Structure formats: C-alpha cells, structure tokens
Amino acid sequence: MYSILFRADLISSFFVYSDMQKIKLFKVTFAKIYFWRNEKMLNTLNDVLNNVDNFIWGMPLIILILFTGILLTVRLRGLQIRHLGKALHYVFHNEDDGEGEVTSFGALCTALSATIGTGNIVGCATAIVAGGPGALFWMWLAAFFGMATKYAEGMLAVKYRVIAEDGHALG
What we know:
The chain is an all-alpha fold.
C-alpha cells in the first residue's frame, strides 16, 4: 500500500514537474517573441529620440541661448557693464544693512560653483585647442551675454523664494 502511494506521488510529481517545464518553456518563448517585437519598437523609438536630440542640441539651442542673452542685455540696458563697479564692491564687502546667513562672497562662490563646474573648465581648454584663439573670442562673447542670463536667473530665484517658519530662505 505504501509503495502504491509512493508511486502515485512520484507520478503526480512528474506531472507537476512536466507542467512546470511547459510553463517555463512557454514563458521563455513568450519573452523572446515579446522582446523581438518590442526590440523593433525600441529601435524605432531610439532613432526618433536621437534625431530630436541631434536637432535640439545643435544650432537651434545655441541660437536660442545667445538670443536670450542678447534680449536680456538689451532689456536690462547693459546691466553687466553699468553695475560692474557695484558688483565688484559687493563681492569683497558685505552690505551694511544686508540680511541673510551667507556673505556676499560666499553666495557668489556658491552660485559660480553650481554654474561653472569642472566640465566647463575642461570644455574651454578643449575649445581653445580645437578652435584656436578664435574660440576664446566666442567664449568671451557668450560669457558677456550669459551674465545677463545669470542675473535674470538669480533675480527670479530671489523673487520666488519662500521663507520657512524658522526664518530660513528656501528655493
């Protein structure tokens, strides 16, 4: 009696094992078909995104950034030239009635470190090596108009910042 139950148990185990193999084989086959169909779709999507990426990060973006800098320079009436003396003064001397937790120089260093980064330093060296001295002129021109863009960005950050309950500035 015990051996009959044991054999029945073996037979049922064999059927369960066989069904598990069929399910596993079905899952593998289904995954291969599913991936093959989606591979075509993913390749097409990748090609479309590459084309959009190449278009946007090419000349249109360079023109848009430069145009924005020129527009802000005109609208701010050459702020980067008119207030250069005041800016240099506040870099090294704090305002008498200024509020806040950070000195003017500390705020400048924080803003510049977040903006410039090491990638731009290497990028400038690479541009000079690849483009020669002419690249330096274009970097100066872009930096001049970029000053107005950076001023506008900082002004919007100050305008829309939020003061927390404990008095810290957020945003």
